[in-house]
Every structure is written in structure tokens, then in C-alpha cells.
Amino acid sequence: MNRTGTRHVPNTTVPPSTTVPPDAVAPSRPPVLERARARLLWLGVAVVVLAVLAPASLAYGSRDIPWSDVWSALGGADATLGEAAASKRIPRTVLAVLIGAALGLAGAVMQGVTRNPLADPGVLGVNMGASLAVVVAVAYFGLASPTGYIWTAMTGAALTAGFVYAVGSLGRGGATPLKLALAGAAISAAFASLVTAVVLPRNDIAGGFRLWQVGGVGGASFERTGQVAPFLAAGFVLCLLSARGLNSLALGDEVAAGIGERVAVVRGVAALGAVVLCGAATAVAGPIGFVGLVVPHTCRLLIGVDHRWLLPFAALLGAALLTAADVIGRVVARPAEIDVGIVTALLGAPFFIWIVRKQKVRAL
Amino acid sequence: MSAEILAPPPSVGDVARGRVRRALRRRTVAAVLALLVAGTFLAYLMVGDTCYPVDDVLRVVVGEQVPGASFTVGRLRLPRAVLAVAAGFSFGLAGATFQTMLRNPLASPDVIGISSGASAAAALAIVTLSLDETQVSVLAVVAALAVALLVYVLAFKDGVVGTRLILIGIGISAMLDSVISYVLSQAAEWDLQEASRWLTGSLNNAAWRETVPVLVALAVLGPVLLSRVRHLSAMQLGDDTAAALGVRTERTRVTVIVAAVGLIAFATAAAGPIAFVAFLSGPIAARLVGPGGPVLMPAGLVGALLVLVADFTGQNAFGTRLPVGVVTGVLGAPYLIHLIVRSNRTGGSL
Known about the structure:
Distance between the termini of chain B: 18 Å
CATH topology of chain B: ABC transporter involved in vitamin B12 uptake, BtuC
Radius of gyration of chain A: 22 Å
Number of domains of chain B: 1
CATH superfamily of the domain at 109-221 and 228-357 in chain A: ABC transporter involved in vitamin B12 uptake, BtuC
Number of helices of chain A: 14
Oligomer: heterodimer
Helix content of chain B: over 70%
Largest sheet of chain A: none
């Protein structure tokens, strides 16, 4: 940890500024401080990127809008065509930012809880489970209320998460990364097939096949976003609270317990937070995959493994990624739009394959 | 397995008797399955919104003109039933080939993205480029072969390990399914018929010009696969053993992969990637035939039976007409989950 002081005072953690022995030469920039500076720098970069992307999401789409119109639309005007179009894109952008943050954060937490680099709300089938629960409830049990959607989606997400984890940890070796990923991917494929079976023959399910199978933020409205916002907020809080505990879990369950962490509680709270985020996100935007896979890995590369930094950064970067993916989806296929779930799958699946290739596999 | 190893070595007579018994069981299963396919085929032609007696149907099949039945049975139901059998047989045969060769039931073409590749190419060719049937089939074959090669190359790292191949295949499959959704969303309007066909498989477009290429492909490629059954069984013991038994392993593998991918691609170009038929047929056939036997022929028959029965059910059993892939998808999904549970619990090759 602290390379400057350890030679003279081994086995003690030394706060760098106060109690460094006088004979230890203080370096010009202590590494801890340098790391903090790098983290702040990247955090700043992420904020700037998001601050650029969000207005860009208002300006670019099937029709490009001059920045002056975007500006006045933000002020509430919708007199000109451009202003009207930009103000229609405001709820969509807000939703993309929220959902992206939720999925990025949920992915980081799931990777921490399962200590699995392949964990992601999409790969582990949690989003598809939420989607399946909603379409089944709508199709066969007459679910109609917006809050009902959210509670159903969260129940589906929770049940699927538990089921996938149980299946993935059966047998020798427990929940190894590849076993868990395979259980999740297979269950996700099975659920996707069931979602298709429920939705495809019926045209009375809101959002239809594309929302519940692919996922997208096209149908966003402030009303629906407002309905999920409290749930998302609760999920954010639960996840961010478990940051310190996730740091301990990263050392292994025994060590974590040894340093006084209540392992089961940390896991439970963090997993609950992730499930709430996944369920709420899916209830409003469908099962969007791979955001939670790509974002945490990128974050770890940039700012390291400390969850107290990683989690907020993952939320920021997730928001930026989903907003960017949504803009890409609107720009490349003009005048049509590509659902954001399609874009994230096309961007994220190669990343998934790359991580699978890096894993060590027990031979047959 | 372990019990067999621990048991005292069987006498020559026992081995021979066991072999005869298993061969007999295999033949019986194949015969019963063939009869079931024929019976379902006939019922499929007879029953529908209007029902026709057996003799009318048979007269239509041999080419006589029967008022009413000639159109309904001859023009609508017959090509559809033939496509169901041909596509089902192709999927079952190719799926069991992959599962046998890779020694893993999850390594079926519809799980590892090969069907999705063929489907994405066919959807692109039909929905976006408006090509004709031959071009569609060619494009589907090329795309499916490319996907098979890509999955293999990506999964190769000091050899190919089952789990990695399957996960990479699932990743590729996710991308290709996105491509299909994209192609469909680019069409002038969201077309439910096309969507069902390319996402989950449907026989609604069945006419002779769709059905004939599948039949031709099956007639050419089916015998290629079935004649390699012995080589495949030997290769299940490992490449070295197979080579010692006189099998040219690399050549066999390439031939078999190309033939199986070709079958998948032709069937998918006509009927879409009918969900989980390739995945389900092999294990069902293996259960029927019993341990140790080659399952290619029975798997083909099981595939044909599955698609026929599923389409018949989808057409007649519910208030609305369901595409065949929806029915097979509902059948296949629980089995996929069951398989993951079982293979994890027994600590198999996963």
C-alpha cells in the first residue's frame, strides 16, 4: 500500500501525511494522492463526456436540430419544428441517462457480489426474467397499472437472479465464472424464447415485441420515468451503501468475515440493490443487455478496483454509454431508429466474447 | 459408466447379444418414429379448418384432381407439411451431428449462433434486398458457414473447450439476433409474419418454391451425414483413437460440419430458425434409442415429428394461429434449463 513508510514501520498502515517517520524521505507526490488525482481526473472526464452527450442526444436524431433551438427547447419553448423535436427528446434523454446509470451500477455490483467478471444484468438473465414476468402478468393476469409493472419486474428479476445463481453454483467448484455465465445465458435464452411465445401472437401488449425482447428508450415519457424514479433512487442508495462491503468481499469470503464484515448481509443488500435497479430499468425500458458488462470493466481499467470510486463511476459511464448508444441508433439508420438494446448488443457482445476468451477453463 | 467398469468383464456371447439387442432397439425406434411421422403427416393433411377424408387426401397426394381438396390440401397443406418434415429432419440431423461431434448437447447450431447467422442472412436477403429463393439459400449457407468458422476460431485457444465455445456462440448469437431485429425494424412496417419467421421460425410462407430447395439439400447432404455415422462414433472416443481405427479425422470433421451447416442454412432460409428443434431432437432420440448408439437417423425423425406436431398444434389447438417456433420454443425452453441444471449437478463437461 504505502511503499514509503513500510521499511521502517512494517505491518502498520501509515496515513501518508501525518505520522510518516522523519527519516523516511517523503516523495514529491505520494502514490495515494496521485491515484486520487487520477480518479478525480477520470471522474471529471466522465462528467464532461456525459455533459456533452446529453445535449447531443437532444440535437442529433432522425432530424438534426440547430443548437439555438435545443437551447430554447430546454427553456420550455416548442414553437418551431426544431424546438418541438428537441423537447420531445428531453424525456428520452433523461430516461437513457437514468437507465444507463442503473445498468452500469447494477453490473458493477453484480460483478462484485458474484466476484465474476462476466456478470451483467443481461448475461445473467435478470433483465430477461423481469421482462418475462411483466409480459406474462400483462398477457394472462391483466396487469395494467404502471406501479404493478415495476413490482412485477422486480419480482421477476429477483426470482431469476436467485434461480440463476442456484443453478450456476450446483456441482463441483461452486459458481465459477463460466458456469454462472453459462447458466445465466442459457436461462436468458430460454426466457427470451418464452417472451417471444407470449408477445408475438398478441398485439395488445404495450410496447410489443420490440420493447420486451430487445429493449429501448424510444417510448419515454416524464410520467413513466417519474414512476420508476423512486425505485431507481432506492436501488442507487442500496448499491452505493454496499461499496465498502464489496471491497471486503473482493478479498474472499473468509478474509472478509475475518476483518469483521457481515458477508451475508453485504451480499444481500448489494444484490437487492442490483435487482431493484434491474427490475425498475426493465419495467420501463425492456431488457437492455451488456451495458453492465462493458462499463465496470472499463471503469476498473481507468480508476482501479475500489468500489467506493468504482460504483459512482460505473453509474456515470453507464449513463454516458447508453446515451451514446441511443444517439448512434438514431443517427446511423435515418430516418428509422435502431432500438438502443440492439446497439448495446452489437457493441457489447464482442466485449463479452473477449472476456470469455480471457477466462481460464478447466479442460474436459 | 463406472458400474460397467467395475462389473466383471462380459463374455463374448454377452457382448454379441447386447449388440444385437441394441441394434434391434435402434431399428424398432426408427421404424416407430417413421410410422409416427407418416401418420402425423396424413393427419396434418386431413385436419384443419375444413377436414377431408383419407381417400380424398391420398388421391390429391398422387396427383388426381379432387374438387376443393386439390386446392386446400394440394396447394396449401401439402407443401407446408413437406416443408415441416424436411426442415424438421434437417434440423434434427444437423443438431445431433453437432452435439455428437462436440460431445455436448448445448453445442447445437441453434444455441451457438449458426441458425441465427443463416436467419440474419435470409432476413436481410428477403426483407431488405428482395432476392429470389436460390440467392436467399446461397446467402444463408455462406453466412452460416462464416458464423461456424468464426465461432470455432474465436473459441480456439490451446484447443477448443466446450464451455468456451458455447458461451462465445451465445455471444455471437446475441449479436446476430440484434441484426435480425435491426433488419426487421428497417422494413417499411413491422411485419408480424416476417418477424415470426426470422426470429422464431414459421411455416406460414410455405409454398413449393420454398420447400423444394430444402428437399434437394436434404437429399444431397443427408446421405453425406448418415454415411459418416461410424466415423463420428469413432471420433467420440477422441481423435487419436479414431485415427487408429482408420478414420481420417480432419477430413471427416470438415465434411460433416459443411454438410450439417448446409442443412441448417437451407432449412432456415425457408422456415426460419425453428426454435430449439436442432437442440431438442438429439437428446430425445438418444433417450429413445438408449445409450451408446448413433442417433443421427432417429434424431432426424424426431425433428420432423416435432415440427409437424408443433405446427399442427399451433395451427389448430389455440384460438389464434401460433407460428411453429413459438410452440417449439415453449417446449425447448424448460428442457434447456433442465439440461443446465443436470449437467451442473453431475459435474459433466461444463
